[in-house]
Amino acid sequence: MIRLEGVVKSYQNFVAVNGLTLHVPPGSVFGFLGPNGAGKTTTIRMLTGILEPDEGSLLVFGKTYRKNRNDILNRLGYVPDRPFLYGKLTAMELLRFLGSLRKIQGAEVQRRAMDLLDQFNLADFANQLIERYSHGMRQKLVLASALLHDPDLLIVDEPMVGLDPRAAKQVKELILQFARQGKSVFMSTHTLEVAAQLCHQVGIIHKGKLVADESIPNLTKRIEANDGDLEAVFMALTKDLERDQDREVVPF
Amino acid sequence: MIHDYVVLDRLGFYQLKNRFLVNFQRNPIVMILLLCLGGLFYWGYLELSVMLLAFIFKQPVYGVLLATKLIQILLFIALGIGLMSSLTNAIAHFYLSRDLEFQFSLPVNLNSWLLHRFFQVYIQSNWMLLLFGGPFIWIFLDLSGNNMLVCLLGVGVLAALSAFPVLFSTLLCMSLVKVFPARRVHQVFLVATVIMVASLVFLFRYLEPEQFIGPGGMDRFRGYIDLVSLDSQQWNPAIWASNLLAALSQKQWTEALRHGGQLGGAFVGTVGFMLLAGRRLYRSSWDRALQSLSGEGEIQLDIAKDSFLSRGLQYPRWSQEAREVLLFLRDPSQWSQVFVLLALLGLYLFSVTKLPQNPFGGTMYNLALGNSGFVAFISLSLASRFVFTSFSSDGQAIWLMKTTPDGWVHFVRGKLLVYGVPTLIFALVLNLLSGMLMKLTGEQLLYLGIGVVWDTAFMVFLALGLGMLFINPGIDNPLKMIVSTGGFLLMAVGLFVTLLHVILRLTSNSPEINLLLSYMTWWPDLQDGKVYYYFGSLFLIEALGLVWLCRQGLTHLRIGDF
């Protein structure tokens, strides 16, 4: 579903992603972990076509963005960490608009939009301007918009941020259900507990490099070796973080 | 208290410095070019000011009096402009600024905080006034035979005078916000300011300033100046300041001391009053500031469930255009711009009806060609305000475009059709309408129309290209883009090319202007059809340049990191 080979991305003098190689098979939930500034968001931005890698190969559905951009984006749903939306549109208008960009029109988009808004308890607010929504409501609307076109791959950056416990539980169920349908989820998170609950495989990125790529059974073994603590495993893999972070601050 | 004030001001200074340095690091060549251009413009302004004041001073009998009167009127206008500008700035800085919540949580003295915000409003409202007005007063005092110290004191008088409207606006805003929502007050002030500015421009146009040029112009100017009597307004700080400057220019030191004491005393008293009253007023309206940050007081719109535009969003062919129009119509901050547009339209048509029949010995067609330059300036402002800023107006929601398969070309087409094409039609209608009022022939109208389409299309595509290249979705107010590096570049290139187009058209049509320019400058002889080679080459260069720019812009939209 996703295959990255030696992907490099730099910003001026700073290498954000440094020779990243990973593989996400169909039907799996891949948890992407790492400390702040490790290169998670840059990787996700490359996976969603927002950024182009400087080096290496990046394949989504076995295709490159350079040649098959529209094909990939038609089968991909993206949920960013911060739910920025057009505040002066209503939720229904936003979904209509996004549907039209993916050539879903008329009664079909209306039906799908209402179903999703209903599923996320937003149906009563469907015709209100998004600028009046709370953070959690916006987050749910972004999720709805990512699912509107029934994608085969969902890329989610920090899915639980800003959600109340009920909505968070709903999102977890949605992700698991998504994977059960043979589709894939690529999920970045800081919450180790969420990763342990949902993911089939976990990758830990540090200083732009993948320092661990483990299936959950393997990770469980490691956790058991560290007194049953996933946090301890994470800390051990990223132990030189503080020193490096000081060095990585780009001088003005 | 002083320590707190310095810390707060330093924060603002660092932000300003960093913004400048970031721009410089990103586009060093563009920044150097812009600085050079700005320096050249400012030098030109100073030279013109010296020439104008020296000319007035040289007039027999009434020269000095006329210059003093002129300064008095300018100070009066400066006070008015400062008042209008500081009203909107005060409410924005005291109640709508995003860093309020953060700064309220800091352990700083409230008086220091009030003074710091007051200084910010002062600088934001008056920097242009001080930049252009200061040297004008310096030149006035210098030509009166004063030394540098007195000239410097004169500039200080303007600086002190500029503080009065800020103090008044600050207290007025604080009082109003106790009763009305901050955002609503801001919107009302914004519209009122635009109407006032438009009225002032109309007033200026009504004077028909062209009558002051040529033989007898100076006498007519003196007649107008004599009509303006401000001496009766002894309560007005502008009069105190002008009396002080007049005394300084005539070296009447006792008088200068008296007026200086009057102005200085009032200044100190007003600052003290602001601190005492402002402290109380602001404390009691503190909550309003925080409420306004969460959108309280916004004009609430009733959204029709299935309006024509809302339905248009579901059609792939027109969804981008429908979205652009909906977002534009639902944003109240855009409405004040429509007032500006209507004011410009009215001003232009009014000007056309007042045109002299035999302008400076030329023909009406020459005047129409010259007028097309004026309209081009309006079109450039429109392209800058609407087309250029439209990309950054999408804000952080731009990720939606980056992750949907519709394609950037459609996205850019939406901007072009919704903002660019109306600009083009606006310019064309204005020019052709005025051309008809000037009784131009069909052939002349056609030639004029082609020229206007060329001018405006150039500006629209330039604004599109630069808007894509300099997109900044993170900016809190897209209007700030107008004064960004890209905005300045658009203005500089747009004005230069407009000027070139207009001069080319005029020199090819008028043998007199052609001769004058060839004689005075390096401008080539463009009569007998030679101009078409120049037009052709220029068109080719511009077209290729714009294609390159728009391609660069599209690439930046597609893979740029913003």
From TrEMBL, chain A:
Pfam family, one: ABC_tran
Residue ranges constituting the ABC transporter domain according to the UniProt record: 2-232
InterPro entries tied to this protein: AAA+_ATPase, ABC_transporter-like_ATP-bd, ABC_transporter-like_CS, ABC_Transporter_VariousFunc, P-loop_NTPase
GO molecular function: ATP binding; ATP hydrolysis activity
Keywords: ATP-binding, Nucleotide-binding, Transport
PROSITE patterns, A to Z: ABC_TRANSPORTER_1, ABC_TRANSPORTER_2
Record's keyword annotation contains Coiled coil: no
Designated name of the protein: ABC transporter ATP-binding protein
Taxonomy of the source species: Bacteria, Pseudomonadati, Acidobacteriota, Holophagae, Acanthopleuribacterales
From TrEMBL, chain B:
Keyword terms: Membrane, Transmembrane, Transmembrane helix
UniProt key word NADP: no
Regions that span the bilayer: 29-57, 69-96, 121-141, 147-176, 188-207, 263-282, 335-352, 364-383, 416-433, 445-470, 482-504, 531-550
InterPro entries: ABC_tran_2
A Pfam family recorded for this sequence: ABC_tran_2
Transcription in keyword set: no
Name of the protein described by the UniProt record: ABC-2 type transport system permease protein
Organism: Sulfidibacter corallicola
